Amino acid sequence: MKAVISAFAFIFSLYLIFITPEAVAQERELQMRNVRVSFVPGLSTNGIDAHDYTARFSLNILAGYNGGMDGFEIGPVNVNRHYSRGVQLGVINYSGGIMQGLNIAAGANYSRRDMRGIQLAGFVNASEGVIQGIQMAGIANSNWQNTLGFQVAGITNISRREVQGIQFAGVVNASTDNAQGIYFGGFGNVNTGRALGFFFAGAANVARDFQGISFAGVANATRNMHGIQISGLVNGAYRATGMQIGLINFAREFQGIPVGLISAYGNGRHNIDVWTSDSGFSHIGLKLGTRHIYNMVSLGYNPLITDRDVWSWGWTIGSYRNLAERWNNPRWEGYFSMSDFSIQNIQEVRAAISLDNIFTYRFLLGKDISGGFKMYAGPTLNLLVSKQEEANQYTWYSLLSGSTRDRGWRLWIGLSIGMQFFGH
Question: What is the pTM of this model?
Fold first, then answer.
């Protein structure tokens, strides 16, 4: 990567030095010099009128204040009133106008207007105009207008206008206007405007309006979301359309697919389910989600095993369909179907890490009785995976059985009967 950047900078510098300087100098009405040397502003080979000159090669002993630069410049402080085109090496590089080329500074690179090319700084890159190319900083990149290309920072990237391209930050990416492209943040991404594309953050993604895919290690938060939110803990939105994947998902209005332990929506379902199965377990569950897609957390107990306490906790994801709508036939009004997949972790006596699980697929048909009270029943396909011989008591027969390493498994077809209360 370093070799590519170096080659790019070298070729770009040659182009600026040998092809464009005269044209640029004429445009800015600056006088061209091949070489200039400055000790401090006002004390240079161009005298006190240095702001009226540009040069191919510029050496600033302490600090230089010149009109422009078309080529190569080195010094602790490099200041060009109108523009900088080429390569700058210094502690501080400043351009009052367009910066094109490669700027390398131990302290800061600053361009008052457009920046095109590559900036490298040990502390800050700042531009008050459109950025096109790559910015790199040990601490932060800051831009007050559009950003096009790449921004790379050890701590944070900040843009007060649209961002287009890719931003990388060790801690935070922040934008107060539209963002388009891909954001990477070691801590979080923050945008108070509209975000389009991908967000990646180690902690949190925050946006007012978001379209695309948002990843966060902890939380995603947005006012309006169209796309996919994925987080290790929480996804939140005021209005959302698409998919939310996280431990906890919530929104005031949501349309799409929720995947989470808890998926609570203001316009969604809020049900309590009670059901039993041929394995002997009786369950109670909290069913949340949308009208058509639901997540459910549940607790179960097996009263048929009397020599010890056997209970379970489970998670379910499933779909609900109104048969009258599905078949476009009013005769089936009040009837519905549900199909879901669940993981039931078996616990004995007290809660502990258990490797005993029952994986179940259910296909259920039901009837809406009245006032949100529904009854349903249907066949199930079950797979028990356990390393305890006593686990065979969880099922009274098996179609297939076997063992793998230290675990045994049993497959059977069963039956589930249940009731649903409240809501949809």
Answer: 0.71
